[in-house]
Amino acid sequence: MSLSPAVDTTSLPDWTIKDTRMSQPEPTARIEKHAAGAEYDFREGCAITEWWNHPADDAVSVVRARVAAGAVTRWHRLHGTTERYLLLEGAGRVEVGDQPPASVGPGDTVVIPPGQRQRITNIGNADLVFLAVCTPRFRDDNYEDIDSSGER
Question: How far separated are the first and last CA of the chain, in Å rounded?
């Protein structure tokens, strides 16, 4: 004996008995491998390794950034893009917008809203390493160098 009543599906509209999940393609998993030595010097004053920045995925980009001991990146801003620094190694001092400078280190996250001026200084004796996660993804035309503009 069944506890649930029988349902006569012949009297129901078609949309109630269709499984819409069957008509949508499943996302495809992928693994991206990056060759050793893919790091390059970026005009901002740090070394970058692109981990993910693909036109087919406009939602996000991820780079590994490395700032040498004693180095300071240039003042810059990203238009239309929120950037997050996820600190992995080293010691730094970050400056964002009109906020006072703040010390940062491994485990810290810095959230930088679109259009905010920013720079980071390595205040340690070893490399400062962090992931820079941008949403939507980083595009060069969203980058503005303001170091020489005198803007604060």
Answer: 77
Residues across the chain: 152
**Strand order through the sheet with 61-67:** 40-42, 46-52, 61-67, 128-135, 82-89, 109-112
Burial class for 143, CB neighbours closer than 10 Å (0-12, 13-18, 19+): middle
Asked if 143 and 78 touch (Cβ cutoff 8 Å), the reply is: yes
Contact 133, 84 (CB under 8 A): yes
119 or 56: whose pLDDT is higher?
A: 119
| Domains located in the chain, CATH noted | 44-145 (2.60.120.10)
What is the pTM (predicted TM-score) of this model?
0.77
Q: How far apart are CA 146 and CA 81, in angstroms?
A: 16
